[in-house]
Amino acid sequence: MPPCTEPLSATGTSLWWHRDFRRYLTGQAASVTGSSITQMALPVLAVLHLDASTAEVAWLAFLGQLPPALLALHAGALADRYSKRRQMITGDLVSATVLATVPVSAALGTLTLTQLMIVAVVQGAASVLHDAAAISLLPSLVDRSLIQRSNSRVGALFAVAATAGSHLGAALTALLGPARALLGDVASYLISVVCTARIQTAEPARARPEIRRLRGEIGEGLRYVRGDDRLWTLTLVNATTSFALGLLNTLWALYLLRSLAMSATVFGMVLGLGALGAAAGALTAPALARRYGPGPMMLTALAITPVTQLPLLLASPGLAWQITIGAALFLQLACAGAAGTTQRSIRQIVTTAGMQARMQAVSTWLTSGARPAAALLAGALGTWVGVRPALTAGALLLLIPLVVLARSPIRALRQMPDPPADSLSTPHANQTSPPALPSPTRTDDARHERALGGDAS
């Protein structure tokens, strides 16, 4: 299929015809599929096979979430300075290598919780490098007017990939055991490497000299986000949402698998149903934003999210409650898909090309920095007062991002904002075939947090 080299008309070529967009999408979707396998298999491995306690589960979550809090700003500055594709490939190769040690150790009978914690730290650091570059690469592949629609397609496909990964993870866990099931994630990283290496669109030229101190570029990114009310408000919404979800997600698997006696297979099916909700939310986000306005739509989604936690808090073991929890997760992630898609598109549209990775890194730093603290709080509350009261606290914390957005002018935003003047006048430098997609209209998405983990950034 020839590359897309001509401007698109209003009813012209679909995004799916753009070769580099497809390569980007395929590689990242494979990675999301693999991550869902790990999300399914790792709690089963820790809780059921290594008999992890509530505190140990919390520590495992804390260590896995610590690298983004420590390294996100540096990863973003590096992505704006050097090749984003090279950084993505490096992160994927490191993740594949360290994750492969888990099934090897399990086969040798030497796997311990300590090793899982080390793997969580190393893989977390590698994922920071990859994600900082991957998220900020998209605006260089498509025109600003296509960012919302591109994000919508990306978010929907990622949610479908997460669904497939959850079901595949459940099947692999049942057939091979949770340790060997992780080999599916290893394969996904290698697919991502191949797809990323084949992207041909040139990245925008870096205007600043590469000898500049990294600290100065990090500070520039922080000031840039803090100086724009839209970026700062959405970043605070992301951070407060991340803290609440960090508390909930730390204990979620433990609560379902142990307190509600949910089997590994049903657990995977529940995760898959939630991912379908994320796909529905991402696909409908552009239409909802056009009809009701991005601000009111995001505000409504944030208002619904705390309510979706009620079935989890009231549940007892049994099929009826399992179905109810799955339906609630579907609705929760539909809201997350719609709101996350829209807020990310707004941030990408209003940010200049040279600041994309650092803008994203500031959001990732704050949202990721909230998660380790939330994981420790979850472990403490779960140990001292019980898992269900700790989950109740997490549900109440979901009211904070609603208040933050409700008190900002963004709540009344009726249409997507215009891009900055420099992005309208400055073409992509050193561009090779195929070029970024042009488009006459504007539309949207969100990503996995990596999808189910709630990465609102």
What does this entry look like structurally?
It contains 17 helices and no strands. The model is unreliable at 1-12 and 424-457 (pLDDT under 50). It has 457 residues and is an all-alpha fold.
Give a short account of the largest sheet: none
- Residues in β-strands, percent: under 5%
Oligomer description: single chain
Shape descriptor: globular
With helices defined by DSSP (H or I, 4 residues minimum), what is the helix count?
Answer: 17
How far is it from the N-terminal to the C-terminal residue, by CA? Answer: 34 Å
Q: Provide mean pLDDT, rounded.
A: 78
Rg over alpha carbons: 21 Å
Could you list the spans in which at least 5 consecutive residues all have pLDDT below 50?
1-12, 424-457
Helical proportion, percent range: over 70%
Would you list the SSEs in sequence order as H and E? Answer: HHHHHHHHHHHHHHHHH
Please outline the helices and strands.
Elements: H1 19-49, H2 54-81, H3 84-108, H4 113-141, H5 147-176, H6 178-181, H7 183-197, H8 214-226, H9 229-259, H10 264-292, H11 294-307, H12 310-314, H13 319-350, H14 356-384, H15 387-397, H16 399-406, H17 421-425
Helix pairs in contact: 1-4, 1-5, 1-7, 2-4, 2-8, 2-14, 3-4, 3-7, 4-14, 5-10, 5-13, 8-14, 9-14, 9-15, 9-16, 10-11, 10-13, 11-13, 11-16, 14-15
